[in-house]
């Protein structure tokens, strides 16, 4: 402010001095010298004014840059704190998962039957890494398919469970259900069969998987089964098979509590565009009170709300899709927009395939709290005596 007053006073003095030159004084000086003196004074005053303006503008820009730098520092420090908190939460979850699964064994409660004295959930240190949701690769000329076909035929199907974790609640809120095989000492955990698995009756496999999951929910989870439902994968194979679909519907109808303990997980495309027969079977299943989990989404974000009208409670999205690492077409909806649209539609978003701490932290940043993946826990096998009971 003082600099501005000084500049204004100096400029005024220059103008006043120029105007104070009287004709007599001017006559005493050579005419050309007088004109040069006046022009030089005016140019000097203009230059001084411009210099003052540039100086003040530079000061304002410097102040704005300082404020911008400070805001960036604050934002980075907040982001660093969030990342550290997310990392601590992930570390806590990893420790907790083992305790949660151990608690499911019922070892801390009095056994209701002699068979219940056996530990329910065990991990095989010698087993190879789980294959997750991928269909089993036929081992030794279809050895895996043959073993699974035999298990389905005999009804002696073993299960594995993989926990769905809530980071905010620091607790398991459900489990994905797998069929478990032991082949030459190696573990195969099968989520859903590929349509190319010709040796196995897919409808019978899915029906048996739901049946075994229902038995596990009733006998082992007890009153907690409603808050930790078992997600059972089904496909068009079950919906196209009248006998298998009727069996699942009758099972849920005869035990109403199972409608909260079992969630049927299937592709969102199958839910949105079923055949007339499949639509009728889906309606039949919904009448039992059971809920659906939709897997994946390839439509516009604004259409996600349609899933609620189809009985969907959960929307499972792969971590790579949520983090925009894979896109099936140009101008595809971003993962963040999908997460927001799903939440606004009242759906529980479950991020699947979480493999690293970085994935978990980035998914948390999208506002997604429910996650599942080998980063937290691989599928854990149920003992055969319990699965077949």
Main sheet characteristics: 8 strands, mixed, barrel
- How many separate structural domains? 2
| Multimeric state | single chain
Distance between the termini: 89 Å
What proportion of the residues form beta strands (DSSP E)?
15-25%
Q: Roughly how much helix do the residues carry, as a percent range?
A: 40-55%
CATH architecture of the largest domain: Alpha-Beta Barrel
Poorly predicted parts: 105-141, 385-389
* C-alpha-based Rg, rounded: 36 Å
Protein name: EAL domain-containing protein
Signal peptide: 1-20
Transmembrane segments: 36-56
Region (Disordered): 124-143
What would the keywords be for this entry?
389 residues; alpha/beta; TIM Barrel; 2 domains; eight-stranded mixed β-barrel; disordered C terminus
Secondary-structure map:
Blueprint: H1 2-19, H2 23-27, H3 31-104, E1 121-122, H4 143-154, E2 158-166, E3 171-183, E4 186-190, H5 202-221, E5 230-233, H6 236-240, H7 242-254, H8 258-261, E6 262-267, H9 268-272, H10 276-286, E7 291-295, H11 306-309, E8 312-318, H12 319-322, H13 335-344, E9 348-352, H14 357-365, E10 370-371, E11 380-382, H15 384-387
Parallel strand pairs: 3-5, 5-6, 6-7, 7-8, 8-9, 9-10
Antiparallel strand pairs: 1-11, 2-3, 2-10, 2-11, 3-4
Helix pairs in contact: 1-3, 3-14, 5-7
Your description of this structure?
It is a single chain. This protein is α/β, with parallel strands linked by helices and 389 residues long. The protein folds into two domains: 1-104; 110-387, Alpha-Beta Barrel (TIM Barrel). Helix content is 51%, strand content 16%. It contains 15 helices and eleven strands. It has an eight-stranded mixed beta barrel with strand order 2-3-5-6-7-8-9-10, surrounded by four helices. α3 (31-104) packs across α14 (357-365). The chain is elongated and about 120 Å long. The protein starts with a helix and ends with a helix.
């Amino acid at each position: 402010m003082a600099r501005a007053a000084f500049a204004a006073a100096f400029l005024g003095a220059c103008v006043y001095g120029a105007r104070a030159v009287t004709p007599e004084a001017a006559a005493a000086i050579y005419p050309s010298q007088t004109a040069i003196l006046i022009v030089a004074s005016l140019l000097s005053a203009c230059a001084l004014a411009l210099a003052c303006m540039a100086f003040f503008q530079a000061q304002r820009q410097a102040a704005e840059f300082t404020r911008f730098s400070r805001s960036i520092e604050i934002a980075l420090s907040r982001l660093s704190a969030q990342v550290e908190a997310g990392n601590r939460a992930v570390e806590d979850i990893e420790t907790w998962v083992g305790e949660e699964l151990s608690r499911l064994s019922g070892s801390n409660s009095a056994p209701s039957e002699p068979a219940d004295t056996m530990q329910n959930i065990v991990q095989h240190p010698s087993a190879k890494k789980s294959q997750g949701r991928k269909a089993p690769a036929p081992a030794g000329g279809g050895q895996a398919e043959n073993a699974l076909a035999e298990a389905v035929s005999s009804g002696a199907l073993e299960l594995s469970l993989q926990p769905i974790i809530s980071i905010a609640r620091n607790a398991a809120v459900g489990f994905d259900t797998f069929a478990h095989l032991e082949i030459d000492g190696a573990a195969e955990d099968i989520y859903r069969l590929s349509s190319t698995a010709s040796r196995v009756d897919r409808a019978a496999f899915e029906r048996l998987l739901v049946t075994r999951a229902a038995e596990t929910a009733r006998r082992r989870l007890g009153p907690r089964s409603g808050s930790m439902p078992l997600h059972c994968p089904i496909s068009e194979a079950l919906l196209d098979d009248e006998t298998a679909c009727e069996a699942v519907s009758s099972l849920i109808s005869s035990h109403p509590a199972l409608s909260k303990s079992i969630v049927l997980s299937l592709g969102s495309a199958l839910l949105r565009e079923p055949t007339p027969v499949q639509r009728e079977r889906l309606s039949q299943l919904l009448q039992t009170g059971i809920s659906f989990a939709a897997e994946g989404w390839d439509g516009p974000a604004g259409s996600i709300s349609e899933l609620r009208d189809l009985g969907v409670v959960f929307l499972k999205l792969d971590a790579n899709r949520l983090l925009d690492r894979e896109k099936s077409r140009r101008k595809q909806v971003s993962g963040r927009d999908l997460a927001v649209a799903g939440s606004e539609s009242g759906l529980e978003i479950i991020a699947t395939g979480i493999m690293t701490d970085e994935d978990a932290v980035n998914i948390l940043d999208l506002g997604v709290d429910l996650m599942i993946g080998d980063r937290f826990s691989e599928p854990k096998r149920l003992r055969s005596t319990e699965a077949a009971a």
